[in-house]
Amino acid sequence: MSKPASGEKDNSLLQLEDVSRSYQMGQVEVKALIRVTLDIVRGEFIVILGPSGSGKTTLLNLIGGIDSPSSGKITVDGIEITALDEKGLTGYRRNHIGFIFQFFNLIPTLTAKENVEFAAELVEKPGDVLEVLELVGLKERANHYPSELSGGEQQRVAIARAMVKDPPILLCDEPTGELDFETGKHILAAMRRINEVNRKTVLLVTHNTAIGDIAHRVIRLRSGEIVEVRQNPSPADPQELRW
Amino acid sequence: MNKLQRKLVRDLAASKGLILAVAVVIFLGVALFGASFMGYQNLKSSYDYSYERLRFADFTVKVGEAPSNAVEELEVIPGVAAVTGRVNTDIALELPGDDGKRVEARVISLPSGERAAVNDVKVEEGSYFQGDDGNVLLVEKSFAKHHELNPGDTVSLTVDDQEISFRIAGIVTSPEYIWAAKSRQEILVSPETFGVVFVSQDTVSELVGKPSINEFCFLIDEGADRDSIIAQVEDELVPYGVMEVVTREEQPSYAALEQDLEGFGAMAAAFPLLFLSVGALATYILLTRIVHSQRAQIGLMRAIGYSRRQVLVHYLSFALVIGIIGALSGAIAGYLLSEVITNFYIGFLGLPFTKIEMQWLAVAEGIFIGILPCIVAGILPAYSASRISPAEAMRTPPPATGRKILLERLFPFLTRLSSLWKIPLRNIFRNRRRSLYTVIGVTFGVSLILVSAGMMDSVEALIDFQFNDIQRYDAQVTFAQPQPIALVDEVNGWDEVEEAQPVLQIPIRLEHGEKTYFTFVMGLSPDSELYGLHSTGGGQVAVSDERILLSEGLRKTLDIDAGDVITLRSSFAFQQVEVAGFVKQPLGSFGYVTVEQAQELAGGQDIISGLMLNVKPEYIDTIREKANQIPATASVELTAETKGEIDEMMDLGMAIMWVMLAFGATLAFAIVFTTVTVNILERRREIATMRTLGEGKIRIAGMITVENLLLGLAGLIPGILLGYGLALYYFRLMQTDMFSFDLVIFPTTYVLTAGVVIFIMLISQLPGIRQVNRLNLAQMTKEQAT
Q: Chain B contact for A122, CB < 8 A?
C-alpha cells in the first residue's frame, strides 16, 4: 500500500487546531471533544478508534461540517470551515465530503441507482452512476430497493453514493457496525481500494481495534481527548483481518 | 423529475391513505365553499336579473282607495322612475271541477294593453291580455302547477256574492311571487289554499263599477333617496288613506328568498372555515409525523449537501400536494354541486329568468382557500425539518420521557390498573399535542353532525308545534266577506263538526313609540281550544279583554315588553291596550285579542272572518265540500293537508341538512383516521416489541381502542357544546318577524351523534390495527428507532 506524503505542507488537507465541542444535556455539560489538534494529509487512510462516548463520531461530524465546534478552528483544503455560514457549510459538504454511516441511511423509497443519483444531482460534475455502482460491485442490483438488499449491499450503495460526488474526503462512521465479519471485510476492502485507486482521503471511525491495522495512521480517543497517534508503516490487507 | 421529486412521489404513494384522508377534508371544505358560494352567486344573479327584467318595485304603498289617475301626481315626484297603480285584493276563487273547490286568490290588476311599468309578469304559457277577449286572467305558475291549471281552463271569482267566470289566458311568473308568500305573516302557505291571479285593470274597473286602485308600485332612479321619496309619496297619498308602505326588502317573497340566500352566504363562510381549519390541523399532524419518521433521511440529505431550502421545499411539497389534490377536486365537485343546487332551486321556485355564469373567480378562490391552509400548516414542520441538525438527526434519539401522569398522581388507584388501561392512559398524556388534535377533530366532527341534526330536529319540532300545539283544528274556513257570528252556532250544529270556534282576523298597524308593524290581529274566544297560545315563559295562555298577546318576534321588532301599552290601528278604529305577554309563534308575527275586541277594531259589528273546526274523523274528507256550501267561503284549509305540503317544502332544506350531516361524519372519519393511524405508525416499534414479549394481537387492538375511545369521549362533550353553540348562533341569525324558531335537539339526537362518532372512531382505527397485526416483528425490533 502506497503511503501518503505526510508532513509535506502543500499536501496537507485538513487541520484541526484546539477544537473542542461540548453539549449541554439538562443541567450537565458534556465535553465531547477537548482541545483536539490534528493534521491530515491528502490520500491518508485514518482510523479513529475509541470506546463508546469517546468523541469519535463528534470528531467526524465536525470535520464533515454537520456539527460545529464550541471552540477551535478547522481548515479543509485551505477553507476555514469553522468560519463558514450555513450556506457555505452546505456547499462544503456537497463538494468536499462523502459520508458513510453505520445504518446506511438509504432513502427506502428510492432504488440503489436512484439513491446514488440522489447525491449525484447535487454536484456539477458527478461520476457516472453505473460506473460507481460497478466499482462497489452492485451494478447488477442497481434497480433494487434498499429493502431488497442485504446489509453489505446497502452499505456498498452508501459508499457509491458517497463516491459519486467525487469528494476528496470520505468520512465513515462505524461502516461495518451493522455487518457480519465477512461482509465487513469486503466493505473495508472497498474503502481501501477507493483510498488507493481513487486517491480519496478516508477517515474511518470504529470501536473495533482490529480495523486499525489497515490504516496509515491510527488515532485513539478517550473521553474526548486524543490519547494516542500511531503511524502504521505497513498497513494490513483488510482480508487478513481477524476479530 | 429529479430524485428529490421522485422521493416525494414515492413517499406520497407510501402514505397514500393518510394523504388522501387529509385531502378529503380539504376537498370537503372547498366543495362546500364552491357549492354554497357559487350556488349563492347563481341564485343571487338569477333573482336580481328577474327583478330587473320584470321591473320589481323598489317600494309599494297600499292605500284605502284612490282614483286611477292619482298615478299622474306621483310620476312627477323627483327620483320616481315609474309608478304603476293597481288593485290588489283577496277574493274567493273556485277551481274547475265538480267538487267546487275554493281557494283564496290574491287578485292583482295589470294594465290591459301595454305591460306594467313596475312589477310586470313573464308569460310562461299562453298569452297576455289581448284586448277584447272577455273575462280572462293570468295564473301564477306555482299555483297553476299545483292545481294543474292550463290556458283555456275556466275558473270563477266571487265578487259581491256573484260568481264570475274567467278563462285562463296564460300562466305567468311574477317577481313578487317567486316564493308565493301570502304575507310576511304567512310565508309558508300551501297552494292548496292560496294562489295569485292577475286580471286586467279594465276588467276590474268593470267589475267594481269604477276605475279605482288601492296600491301603487314604484321604481326609483338609481341613486335616488328612497326614504325621502317615500315621505313625499305618503304626503301625496294622504287623502286616500295610506295603510302600509312595503319596501323591497320587506316584500315577503323578496325577504324570504333573501333570508334563504343569507343562509347560503353564512354557510359559504362558516362551514368551509371549519373544514379547512381541520384540514390544516390534519396536514400539520401528518407532516409532523412524516418529518419525524424521516429524521435520519433529513440528516443524510443535509449531510451530503442538500441545502436547508431544498429540505424545506421538499417537505412543504407534501402539504402542497395535499392542498392541490383536495382543492382541485373540491373546486370541480363544488362547481358541479353548485349546478345541482342552482338547478334544483330554479326548478323548485320556477324562476322567471336565470343567469348562470361560469364563476372562474370563485373557482380560483376555492382552490386558493384549499391550498392556503395546507401551506400554512406545512410551514412549521417543513421549517423544523430544514433546521434539523444532521449530526443529531443521525443519532438514535433517546426514548421519550416516561413518567407517572398527573391523573395517576391524583388517583393512585390508576397505577394499579392493568396495562390494558394504563398504557393507553399514559399514551394519551405522552403526546399531549397529538391527543389534543384528536380531541379537536372529534369535537369539530361532533359539532358539525350536531348542527345538522339540530336543524333537522328543530324543523321537525317547529312543524310539530305549529300543527299540533298551535293549529289544533282539523280545518279552517276563511270567508271572503265577514260573516255574522251567529254562523258559529249554526256550524256547531252540523253532524260533521265536533266543535266550531270563531276567528276574526283584522289587518292592523301596531304602533309603539317610533316603531310600527303591519300585521293581523286574531280575535279568538278566551276559551279557544282549537288555537293554542303558548307563553314564551312556558304554559298555555288565553286572550283577555283590553289586552293583547304578541308573537315573540315582535318583542324586538317593536322594542316592547309585557306591561307596555301599544296602539292598534285599523281602518275603522284605534285602541290602546296593554301587552299581556308574548307567545311562541314560529311562522309570522301576530297579535291576539278577544273576538269582541277584534270586532271593535272592525267597526263594532258582530262579525267573524273565519271558523276553526274540529271534524269528526269520518267526515274529514267531506268537510271541505260541506263548508263550501256557505256562500261566503273563500277557502277551506285542512290542517293535515297543509302539514303535508309544508313537509314537502321543507324537504329541500332537509336534503341540504343530510348533505351537511354526511360531510360532518366524513370530517370526523378523516381526522380520526389520520390521528389514529399516525399514532399507530409512530409506535410500530414499541408495539412490535410488545408483541415480541408475548402481548396478543387482540390485547394490543384493545389498548388502541381504549385510547381512542377515551379521546373520543373527551371530544364528545366539547363537540356537543360547540355544536349547540353554533346551532344557536345560526338560529339567532335566522330569527326575524317572519320566522322565529327555537333550537330543539332531541335527546335521542345526542345519543345518536355520540353513537355515530364512536362508531366512526372504531371504524377508522381498523386500517391502523390491521397494519399492526401485519408487522414484521423481527425487522421492526431491529430497525433503528425513528
A: yes
